Amino acid sequence: MPTFNQISNTSMQSTPSSMRNTANTEIVSFMEMRSDRPEPHADQSQDRPGAHGILSIPSELIHHILKYLGTADLVNTALICPSFRSISQRVIYRNVQPSEDMIIPCLRCFALYPHLASCTRTMILPRRYDVFSDFFNLLRSALLNASSLTDLTILLDGPYARYLHGCPFRLRSLTTTLDWDKDFIKLIIEQTELRNAMFGGKFVDDMALPSDALTKLTRVSASPLVLAAVVPNRKIKEVELCLLHHALFKDDILSTASIILSYSTGPLTALQVITHISDTPSALAALKAIAKNLPRLNSFAFYSSDGVVSQELLEAFPEFLSCFECLKSLILMSRNTTDALHDKTFTAALASRWHTSCSSLQSVSLAGSIWMHNPRHGWVTLADFERLLRGDYRLLSRLKRWTAVNPTMSLEDMKSMKSNLEEEIEDAAQGIQMEQQMILLCDSLLQFGGP
Fold first, then answer.
1. How far is C-alpha 116 from the chain's CA centre?
2. DSSP states of 357-402
3. Whole-model pTM?
4. What is the per-residue pLDDT across 356-389, written as a single tens digit (0 to 9) for each?
5. Is the pLDDT of residue 186 over 80?
6. Taking CA atoms, which of 45, 70, 275, 330 is between 20 and 30 Å from 226?
7. CA torsion sign, 71 to 98 to 443 to 239?
8. Any alpha helices (H) in 35-81, and if so which ranges?
9. C-alpha to C-alpha distance for 72 and 165, rounded to whole angstroms
10. How many other CB atoms sit within 10 Å of the CB of residue 287?
11. What are the b/e assignments for 226-241, b being 16+ CB within 10 Å?
């Protein structure tokens, strides 16, 4: 089989850029070059039914083991026998992110060799690459062979969605900057399994989405115009609202946008806003508009991509938080590392003050510093939670030793001591659970356009 280099008619004597979670080009080429070579007779005999040794292990288990190998080791493993070659290829090509200089060779490889393209589950196509006259046909040929693709990132600006029509894959996640036009609507209708989407393309006027499209979508990131076409009457539970222009973070715009989001049948439980802060009064008015129209949010995340999060804004947050009925999680992030959000001395007491205005609040993250509310200990940091948990487990271990050494301890004393310890451990366990929820929320913000 030709290598990437032969396919692209280029000479790569130096080490090229690597593909995320895949072989670098040199290694992939090395593997492809050998993928059609006949194996020695001794190796082929190991692949026959009834073979003993490692080949008697189920292929699913071998696949799981090989996932922990590095790419160079996977290439060497592929040379053992046809069975190992097939499994190694599935691991190597499962997640593909070609670098800018390898996008064309990668697409040509997938267009020519469907068995490699069919291994891919995740594909990330970068924004910067040369678009030559036949690029889109090459892109289409490659994607037509990617029958198992479930997660696609295609940062291609413009009206090019038609080149994805009729592809056999059914995506669960799509991140794209393709224009939201009639061809894109057709693409969306075809993707009946889509659950997670980031629509960053230009919205074309009067592009309506059929009511029976995107029935499984639960999480979406987009501009207000796209959200207006997607969210109403769909079971959207998580939304990221992108307002990157400073003139968009105004109370009238946020009021309209939040009313539109309220028509989700999810119901909507989590909202993340990425925006630019121009001034404190406008920012506070915009935030209050959100809380007024979406009072039953469980979590709210705010990321300032530009501007300053001032002390005045943070001190006025009780006015904003008091409008929520059941808010449990609050995340505030800012790219400006010199603003009040990064002043740990100032922010240390904010969580407890805000809790008086929003009694349902359980966790607060301010520029990465996380506080949790515990009924027994009040607002504590994650480090405090870890310390409390270790202390409670030590006390429980002592209780077990005491009962073993002193069997004459009264039943009432044992019950009382055990009850108190179990309550403290339960509180600490709840804190760890909230910590995990916060980590998930932070991960979701980073995935959808955070820092």
1. 25
2. T-TT--EEEETTEEEEEETTTEEEEHHHHHHHHHHHHHHHHHHHHH
3. 0.75
4. 999 999 889 998 788 888 777 788 887 776 676 6
5. yes
6. 330
7. negative
8. 41-45, 59-66, 71-78
9. 36
10. 23
11. bbbbbbbebebbbbbb
